[in-house]
Structure formats: C-alpha cells, structure tokens
User: What shape does this take?
Amino acid sequence: MIYKNIIAIAIGGALGTIGRGLLNMHSLWIGLPIATVIENIVGSFLLGLFTGWLIHKRTKDWVKTGIGVGFCGGFTTMSTLAADTLLLYMDSSLLHSFVYLFVSLFAGITLGFIGLILGSKWGESEVKRKVVNH
Assistant: This one.
C-alpha cells in the first residue's frame, strides 16, 4: 500500500514540477518574482479545491496523496518564496520583501480557503446528483 503512495507522489510531483517550470518560462518579470507568487497562490487554490472535493468522494488514499502532496507540493515552492524574500531584501528594500511575503501568504491562504469552499460545494453537488439519480 505504501508503494502506491510513493508512486503517486512521484508522478504527481513530476507533473506539478513540470507545470511550475512551464509557468516560470512564460511569466513576466515586473520587479518582483511574480511567477513564484502565482505558483503558490494557484497551488493553494488547487489544494483547497481538491481537498474540499475529495472530502465528499470515496477516493483511495494514494490518489489524495498524489494530488495533494505530489502535484500541489511539486507545483508550489516554499523554498523559492523564502529565497526570493531574502533576495528582495538584499537587492531592494525591507518594504519590497515584506510586501512580497505578505501578498504571497495572504493570497495563498485566502485562495486556499476559497478553493476549499468551492471544492466542498462541488463535491456536495455530485453527491446530491447521485442520490437524485438513484
């Protein structure tokens, strides 16, 4: 059973990392490392969305682990957020690094919460549809 989790994490992580790499290649530089902000807030939203949705489904643990730990973990990047914050402080100012960190954390938590609510409603609607159809 643990092997399924490990394989799911590896596959999900590879796909998430590829997605992050593609986003980095096509992102605009506006004086802030915007790609990292986008990756982390989109990843937070997706983690919330899939968590909320999967709460209402009978899904194998390895699928949940592959999506959450694998894909969303591979797509987001805490280490780059920390490094970018320090680089902004060293290259620009304390204010730029603080704004970057605040926006990243606030937007990530907010979109994660919104994703959780939407995912839960999505899952609930699927459950209700199944009950009505049976």
Notes: The CA atoms of residues 31 and 92 lie 10 Å apart. Residues 2-133 form one domain. The two ends are 32 Å apart (CA to CA). The chain has a mean pLDDT of 91.
